[in-house]
Design brief:
The structure is a homodimer of 185-residue chains. Chain A has 185 residues and is of the alpha+beta class. Chain A contains 6 helices and 7 strands. In chain A, helix 1 packs across helix 2. The first copy, chain A, binds a DNA duplex (30 and 30 nucleotides) through helix 5.
Chain lengths: 185, 185
DNA sequence: CGCCCGATTGACTTAGATCAACGTCGGTGG
DNA sequence: CCACCGACGTTGATCTAAGTCAATCGGGCG
């Protein structure tokens, strides 16, 4: 699924991770979101896709041809209802990201990012990062260097632990929450 | 309608302009969008509103209590269909804004903003700005000074004309389009 | 073993923010 | 009627957060 291409299908991820992104002619990239198993792709499309989807590692997904899916949707009002709910939720998330991209500092962005990843990890605070530093940077509107430096700072401050680059442990969730919300120092 | 408040109603603007925004505890603001007559408010809500709506000047709107509206929606599948379409469109716009906020320069942002305002003005290119420089800055993730300076630059470059601060004329739509898309200088 | 790719760290640069002064206009009251 | 005031906008000087450029590290793979 590629930005600008006719939106022929909806998809549902069954395994793996997908990066959704848009780009500028000169190569600058903005990751608009990451999709995890269970996520539904294609809602943010009109006649053409608005973003490009790229697999991060191996992915399996379930494809629904657009016309057939729309018929199904009309036959099952509950489904359409559900989709409207999903779309509303995505809009709320999108607005939160505008606040992050438009007004937060690098430190606040990275803290917000870590906390967004936290829920699925429950109490343990152990986070697997399926994406590279480049993906994170393009997601947060920063450079890989700034992401790396900020993570190092959090490590020095004992807010996170990171033995390997793509697996980390939240040590100070409260502190990170304060930083993410920009509540006074 | 205020960020975090229970989402009690949907609204349809019949007159005037509304600013939708989120803010950080220390006062930093991000305008997530402006709404014009005909626009529908409340789609981007779950149980609570995700943004605050503030009137820019006098506004009249049509209020739909949430429960009643949802009943109506279930009775009229065409309406729900329409709303899903609106939500998809909003998502596409939101993604475009993430690209702008995350990756575009000040110059590119202001050019994009001007072009977004252009359509309703047709060929003439005469744009009425209902919002202040502060609103524009908070919309584009910039400061008022940068917005003002960039507009002055465009004026010096004969791309726009601006006799009074809130009314301007597009002189070089092609040039602005090139700038907005970041297509080589 | 050596290569390559991703991540980290350091030195330096810069776009845009901040701080500050000034201009302009519309409203208010003397 | 016009002098004052406050809000909004513009412009200039300076500062800084984050970007760029560059060197180094480290782990997986052929």
């Amino acid at each position: 699924m590629m930005e600008g291409e006719p939106a022929a299908s909806y998809h549902n991820i069954t395994m793996g991770f997908v990066r959704l992104h848009k780009s500028l002619p000169d190569g600058r990239e903005q990751v608009t979101g990451f999709a995890r198993p269970g996520d539904f792709l294609g809602l943010a499309s009109e006649d053409n896709y608005g973003v490009t989807a790229t697999a991060i590692g191996p992915v399996t997904l379930c494809r629904f041809p657009r016309d057939r899916f729309r018929k199904l949707m009309h036959a099952l009002p509950t489904l359409e209802d559900r989709l409207l709910g999903v779309a509303s939720h995505e809009l709320v998330i999108a607005q939160e990201r505008m606040l992050l991209l438009g007004r937060k500092t690098a430190r606040e962005r990275v803290a917000s990012f870590l906390l967004d990843l936290a829920p699925p990890c429950g109490e343990t605070g152990l986070i697997q990062l399926p994406m590279t530093r480049t993906d994170i940077a393009d997601y947060l509107g920063l450079t890989i260097e700034t992401v790396s430096r900020t993570l190092s700072t959090f490590r020095r401050e004992k807010r996170i632990e990171m033995k390997v680059p793509n697996q980390l442990l939240l040590l100070d969730r409260n502190g990170l929450t304060r930083i993410a919300q920009a509540s006074a120092l």
